[in-house]
Structures are given as C-alpha cells and as structure tokens.
Design a protein that fits this description.
Elements lengths: L9 H15 L5 E6 L7 E4 L1 H7 L3 H4 L14 H13 L4 E8 L5 E11 L8 E8 L1 H21 L4 H15 L6 E7 L5 E4 L6 H9 L2 H11 L5 E4 L20 E9 L2 E10 L10 H28 L10 H14 L3 E8 L2 H8 L1 H17 L7 E6 L2 E7 L7 H9 L3 E3 L2 E3 L3 E8 L5 H16 L5 E4 L2 H22 L3 E10 L5 E11 L5 E2 L1 H11 L2 H21 L6 E6 L1 H4 L4 H12 L6 E6 L2 H4 L1 H13 L3 E7 L6 H6 L4 E4 L1 H4 L5 H16 L3 E5 L4 H9 L4 E3 L9 H11 L1
Parallel strand pairs: 16-17, 19-21, 21-22, 22-23, 23-24, 24-25, 25-26
Antiparallel strand pairs: 1-2, 1-5, 3-4, 4-5, 6-7, 6-10, 8-9, 9-10, 11-13, 11-16, 12-13, 14-15, 18-19, 18-26, 19-20
Helix pairs in contact: 5-6, 5-9, 6-9, 11-12, 15-16
C-alpha cells in the first residue's frame, strides 16, 4: 500500500484478507476497494488477482484513480451513470467495463460494485469485484458468427454479404474502441476480392478502387512474410500507402493479420484505428478461429463462381438453363412486356428413354429445340431446358402472330433420328400469356399447369392456361389443407339417410354419409371434398372416422336396449384394397361389441376394374365374417354382368341418374331388367335418389326392394335419427 492510500481499520483489513483468501480458491475474481468520497475515486486496496489481471505492481495500483489510465476511455455517459450510482445508492449494482493492462491487452470485465461501511472508517468505501469475461465474450461472438454464417448459407446469400457481415460483427463487438475492419482475399491471377468497411469515407473507397492490386498484394505479402501480424504506425509515412487518411475517418493506424491456408498466404484481415487508441495487442488465436469461417465462405464463393460458369447451360442437352431463361426474360419483359411462355414435351419421351437410354431422351429434346430454333420468327425468342423431359420457350408478341399450331405441325411432320432409327413423336404444349398482372414465376407455373393438362389429352395437343383451371387447382389445394385440419379436429360427421322397404314403407336400415362443417361454420359438400380426399389418400382416414361414429351410435343404442339397424358405410377403392382393410374392420366391431350383420360395406361399381380377382377375394372374406356388401352406383359407369355372377354382392344400388328418368320408356326398361336380373340372382335392389311419389310407386310395382331419397327422408344427424326412430316407435 503506498503513502497516498487512506488508512483502513483493522476490522476491514481482516475482512478483506478473508475475502482475498476465498478468491484464491477460485470463488471470487479480482477485487479493489476505493474511496467513493474523493472525486478521483482512489484505490485503497487491491487483491493479488486484480494485480495479476491488470499487470501492474501493487505500488502502481494503490492510490491510483479507479477511472484513471488503467481503464480505457469508456463512453462518457456510461461513466457518468456508474459514478452517479456510486454517489447516490447504497445498494450493489453490476455493469461491464474494460481494462487495458500494462501490456496493452484489452480485458472485458463484469464488475459488481458494493458499498462498504465498517466502524472506524470515516470514509465511504466501495468494493469493486472484477470477473474476466473476455474469453467468454469472444467465444459467444464466434458462436454468433458461426450461427449467422450457416443461416446465410441456407438462405443462399451472396458470399460478399456474408463476409461483410463478419467484418461488421468484429467492428461492433471485438473492442470498445472505434475500429474499421476490412478483408482482402487473393486470387491466383494477382487480383483480389475486397470487402471494405462501411466506416470508410467515400474518398478512401474511391482510392482503394484505383489501386493496382498486384502491387498491393505484393506489399501485403511482404509485410506478413515473417509474422502473422504487422502494425502500420502511420499510413501516411508507409512506403506503400494503400490506406488513406481523411478528415472524416481519422483512421491513421492499422494492424494487418495474415490469413493462411495450408501454409499459403491467402488473404489479409485489416483493423484500422486512430493514433489515440491503444490497440497494439491482438488475440491471434481468436482470429485464427475466425479465419476458419472466412476460409469456408471464400471456398464456397469460389465454388459458386465456378458453378456459375456452367449454370447458364443445361449439362445434359447443352441448351440454355432455366436460370438463364428467367434472367433473359426479365430483361426482355422490361423492353416488351407482352409475350408467351410455352412448355413443350414429346409424349413418347419415357418410352424412348426406356428403350434407348437417358442420353437418347436428351438427344431428342436437343433435336426438338434445334427444329424450334429454325422456326423462330424473332431473335427475341428463347428456348431453354425446363425439366428432364421438357423445354420452355419464350415467344415475344412482336413475332409474327403467335401461332403454336403451325409450329407444332412443323415439329412432328418429319421423324427424329435416335440411335440411327427414325422416330415420329406427338407433342404436348402448355401455353400462358405474359401480362402485367402476373409475375414471371406465376406465368411459368401457369404454363406448367396447362402443360400437365395437355399431357392428359391424346395426340398432339396445345392447352392454353385459363384462370378457371387455376382457380380449380387453388380450390383443391385449399380444400386439401382444410381436410388435414378437419381430420385433426374431427370435423367430419356421419349423417344417416334412412333406407325403406318399398313394399311396407318402413325403415329397414340407413346409409352413413360423410358431412363436413368446417371451423368457421360453413359446409363443404361431398362433391367438393371427396374427389380431393380420394386423390390425396385422405379418404381412408375420413371413412375410418365415419365408421367410428356409426359404431358409437350403434353401441349407444345397444347400451340403452334400443333396436339396432343395419348401416351401410362407403369404402373407396383405396380403402377397400388396403392390405388390412378386413382385419381393421373386424377389430373395430369387436371393440364396440357390434355384430357384423349391422354393418354393410358399400363399394362403387368400378371396384373390379383395378383387380377383379383381388376384389372377389376381399368380398368373399367379408362374407365369411358376416358382412354384407353392396354395389353402389350400379349402371353409372362400367357395370358388367360378370360382376353380379363373380362378386358375392348382397345388394346393388341403381344409380340416381336412372331414377331421374324412370318415366322415359328406354330408361324404365333398363331399370326393370336390372331389378328382374337381381331378383333372379337373389340380390336385393335399392333405388337411390327417389324424389317423387310416382317414382316410388313405379319401383314398388316392378319389384324393387328398397328405396332411399328425399321423397322419404333427407340425410340427418344421429340425434335426429334417434328422435325419428323414437317417434315411429
């Protein structure tokens, strides 16, 4: 303790000694005690940890001001805030401060200030406990740089932007001093990639852009030849002044740090700062870790540049790539905003690939493109590769009148040569006009939609995009998303429509129909959601949900000793052919203790088209388990008399389209024949969609067994069905 330090009481010295002993065991960091009543806050005690932290001896520390030359120039407002808290509060508080050690190392500390008041001390004393968080802060900074760099990779950011962000992070977080960080990465041809700090004035940036880089690189390599760092004391007196000072920036000193890659100098990281700052010691190990990231970004950048050389060409066909196509179209649209996007493909592409190989398919596309090029009416037209089996074409409206039909005729009127063989093809084309209301990406997507539609048509076909088709696709996608939500929230409900004996007019069973009321209260009707559910495979989950509701309804009636009725549930072909369809069905009925005679499986008439033999096996298996099966929509599509003899249906349902026209003599004759044939085969007949009494009477007269339709009852909720059955007794 030097002669300028105030006298401390024995009690306080004993306490500090004990405190000091604790820190030797790693509990507390560096500690100082200072006089808070003196304006310069003189240090009256410093433990050994703080002495080691600062690098000064005890005589140099004791009596010195807490905010003297040991500390760098903190933000004035922050210093005033700390001093204000010291003078006004008697409570501990925490803040962050920097210390410049005797060797000019910058140490970041977390500091806790505590007031000390002991008997025998007239002075008001404060204790400051310093925790060195320099390494922790640098590690957090590196981790943040790693994390944000990976995010930038995933977002396909420009590598220059990634490198610039790294430099900005070092500027903001490495030191409290005002520094400007720049990066120079050398190329093999004595050129360089420069990432200049945004803190530099335009004057400095302009000067950099005029520098002969080969000379600059030679200078940098020479400066860093022996050591990994090099300090420029004054940029104006340097033999080669590549960093110019001006009135705005005042960056007149710089530290250069070498970036090595396998012992080869590949770049220089530069930290510029002013003469009045102390920044002589650089943590080389920190920058070596940082340079791992910079080298990875540089490697990514070089690979990206190399790939861009080829990105404008499709490697398989040699035609322009889709990326190039988009870039060029954007330029042309700005000059001539009207035109057409066409997507074109030979329908025989897959067959040719299967016979001759993938290269033959690419060769065919190239030949089509060459033939298209010979038909170009305007130099603005562009042909490019779209996907593996298709080309994309831009035709400007300034060409002769857009005439795709004429071009297609020219494309297919003569054969193509594949593997020394002449091959004739047919062409599918999807076309979408370019307009101000849609982006280029939307136009390409619309042309692709039209192309998909064209591929469904036989022979040469051109499909123009129309908004109705787009709206239909959009509506389907929207419904699909709603189906996912509806299944999750169990929005699908089973409605029951009674089936009546046409002879007695009594209810003999029900058909379960899927109804869907979405969360906003609106109904989506089966003709909208069933096709989407079938196309996406979600119909199986919907049908399982309907079956579950039906079984619960039957179980509740059984529990209440109420009469049970047979309920017909629909099974889509996807569900019916599912490997475990029958086993799951049996398990469900066992779970709810319902006999199989109360569940009838309704199957559409085209069920046998997919696999007649398998359909027969499944229906027979259902019959063995006691289930009856019904052929729905009989006569609507591909009904075959063979179905009735080979598939063990217990019931056929005559399609509503026949019932609607039962008053027509020919239709009536067909219905009567179906009923008579079914009766001869001991198969029940059901007429669905009966809306008038006259229809019911005619069907009853010709011997139809069961009727179903609005003339009798509309589909109803299960509660309504219970109420109806109670009323009927």
């Amino acid at each position: 303790m030097n002669k300028h330090s105030p006298q401390l009481s024995d009690e306080l010295m004993d306490w500090l000694q004990n405190f000091n002993d604790e820190q030797k065991h790693g509990v507390i960091g560096g500690v100082v005690v200072f006089d808070a009543e003196s304006n310069d806050y003189p240090i009256v005690f410093a433990n050994s940890s703080f002495i080691r932290l600062a690098g000064y001896n005890e005589q140099e520390v004791i009596g010195a001001s807490l905010f003297s030359y040991q500390m760098p120039s903190e933000n004035q407002a922050k210093l005033q805030e700390i001093q204000g808290k010291i003078s006004k509060t008697n409570h501990p508080f925490m803040t962050k401060m920097y210390i410049i050690t005797k060797e000019n190392n910058i140490v970041q500390c977390e500091v806790t200030f505590r007031p000390l008041q002991f008997d025998g001390n007239a002075k008001t004393l404060y204790m400051a406990t310093f925790y060195n968080i320099t390494e922790q802060t640098k590690n957090e900074m590196l981790y943040d740089i790693y994390r944000r760099t990976m995010q930038s990779y995933n977002q396909d950011k420009d590598p220059r932007i990634i490198l610039s962000d790294i430099c900005k992070t070092i500027e903001q977080q490495y030191t409290p001093s005002d520094i400007a960080c720049s990066l120079i990465l050398y190329d093999e041809d004595d050129t360089a990639q420069k990432i200049l700090s945004e803190k530099f004035s335009q004057k400095i940036i302009d000067a950099w852009n005029k520098i002969e880089m080969s000379t600059c690189i030679s200078y940098l390599k020479k400066a860093l030849k022996k050591n990994s760092t090099y300090t420029i004391e004054n940029v104006l007196t340097e033999p080669y002044s590549y960093l110019l000072n001006d009135d705005r920036t005042h960056y007149d000193k710089a530290i250069l740090i070498a970036i090595h890659d396998e012992q080869k100098l590949m770049g220089t990281f530069m930290i510029a700062y002013s003469q009045n700052l102390v920044l002589e010691k650089i943590d080389v190990s920190f920058f070596q870790q940082l340079f791992v990231v910079i080298k990875a970004v540089d490697k990514y950048n070089r690979q990206q540049k190399k790939s861009w050389r080829y990105i404008y060409r499709d490697p398989n066909t040699g035609l322009y790539s889709l990326e190039y196509f988009k870039r060029k179209i954007q330029e042309k649209i700005s000059e001539c905003p009207k035109g057409y996007i066409s997507i074109i493909s030979p329908k025989e592409y897959d067959d040719i690939v299967n016979i001759y190989g993938r290269k033959a398919g690419y060769a065919l596309l190239t030949q089509i493109a060459n033939r298209m090029a010979s038909l170009k009416a305007n130099e603005n037209d562009i042909i490019a590769s779209f996907v593996t089996n298709a080309l994309i074409i831009y035709t400007s409206e300034s060409s002769e009148r857009f005439n795709c039909y004429k071009k297609i005729k020219s494309l297919v009127e003569s054969p193509y040569i594949i593997e020394n063989s002449e091959i004739y093809i047919t062409i599918s084309v999807g076309v979408c006009p370019i307009d101000d209301d849609h982006s280029l990406e939307e136009c390409i997507r619309h042309a692709d939609q039209a192309f998909s539609k064209s591929m469904e048509k036989p022979g040469d076909h051109i499909q123009l995009f129309n908004d109705e088709e787009n709206d239909r696709i959009y509506r389907q996608r929207k419904i699909y998303n709603q189906i996912i939500y509806g299944l999750k929230e169990k929005e699908f409900r089973a409605y029951l429509q009674p089936k009546l004996s046409l002879q007695t007019k009594k209810i003999i069973g029900f058909e379960a129909l899927a109804r869907w009321q979405i969360h906003d209260g609106n109904m989506i009707y089966p003709d909208e959601f069933i096709p989407v559910a079938e196309h996406t495979g979600k119909i199986i989950e919907i049908e399982d949900m309907i079956l579950e509701e039906v079984l619960k309804w039957l179980f509740n009636r059984k529990y209440l000793n109420l009469p049970l009725y047979q309920v017909a549930v629909n099974a889509s072909p996807q569900h019916f052919y599912k490997k475990d369809f029958v086993d799951n069905l049996v398990a469900k009925l066992r779970q709810y203790q319902i006999d199989s005679c109360y569940i009838k499986i309704e199957i559409t008439e085209n069920i046998g088209l997919a696999d007649f033999k398998k359909a027969s096996t499944i229906i027979s298996c259902l019959k063995l388990h006691g289930f009856e099966t019904s052929m729905d929509d009989f006569g609507k599509g591909f009904s075959s008399l063979n179905y009735l003899t080979e598939l063990a249906f217990a019931e056929i349902k005559i399609d509503k389209s026949f019932i609607d026209h039962i008053d027509h003599p020919k239709t009536f004759a067909i219905i009567r024949t179906i009923v008579q044939l079914a009766n001869n085969l001991n198969i029940n007949t059901v007429a669905e969609g009966i809306e008038y009494k006259e229809q019911s009477d005619i069907l009853s007269d010709i011997g139809c067994d069961v009727g179903q339709g609005y003339h009798f009852y509309k589909p109803m909720t299960m509660d309504q069905a219970n109420q109806l059955l109670n009323e009927l007794g």
